[in-house]
């Protein structure tokens, strides 16, 4: 069976860790992001095919799908490219930030999915099955103060995932969603806080968060299930975080 997966947002964090994990388990991988130098390094390490693509630019997304089709096709897609900008209130945040979050987390996901669906259908025609997984967030399931545009974008990505599953009913294409809580990746919070490294370290201080590798292990395991098994929604949090509002700092100790 053709096991070839396209992972967007593969130049860092969860996407890069997922490419590594897929490769470990014998998958062919296509690593997609804007920063070509980082993709080249990942390709040298894992054997991935690197494709530089901004998922918010239609012509680049079309070229991505064409290159994937021309180089062997695909049976799997991970829509992981995304991120947050700012922690401002609804009242004080800027539409520019919100627009950027919608562009990448929602419209980018839609464009890549639409462009890749014919390729995935061809893969399914050859092998019997195909899979899509959208990387959303617990921020797409629970709102929090300062979440504003990121909550709105990830709620939208969650909704789009449900719509897609309904629209693909009857086809051998599973549609999965992975919604992680606190994950300590090098760039996510740094980008959200516009490069303020001191502030970006705070959410991870004195807590045991998820690592990108933890998310990647669970993500790839979903693709490794028998192809008729669809894990609709996987919510993944560190033990220290029992909700978006409850993060335990300090050691975890049994009571008694
Ligand atoms: N870290 C967390 O706590 C957390 C929790 C829940 C969900 N998530 C979600 O998980 C996903 C990955 O997060 P992460 O923590 O691994 O963040 P990250 O390290 O900042 O990775 C984001 C990736 O997306 C890519 N990207 C951003 N804009 C893009 C664009 N326009 N076109 C193509 N690629 C683009 C970036 O690469 P380039 O800059 O090279 O393009 C990068 O590879 C995101 O969707 C995020 O919202 C993260």
From TrEMBL:
Keyword Cytoplasm: no
Gene3D superfamilies: NAD(P)-binding Rossmann-like Domain (3.40.50.720)
GO molecular function annotation: oxidoreductase activity, acting on the CH-OH group of donors, NAD or NADP as acceptor
Key words, A-Z: Oxidoreductase
InterPro entries, A to Z: NAD(P)-bd_dom_sf, Sc_DH/Rdtase_CS, SDR_fam
A Pfam family matched in the record: adh_short
Family statement drawn from the similarity comment of this UniProt entry: Belongs to the short-chain dehydrogenases/reductases (SDR) family.
Protein's name according to its UniProt entry: NADP-dependent 3-hydroxy acid dehydrogenase YdfG
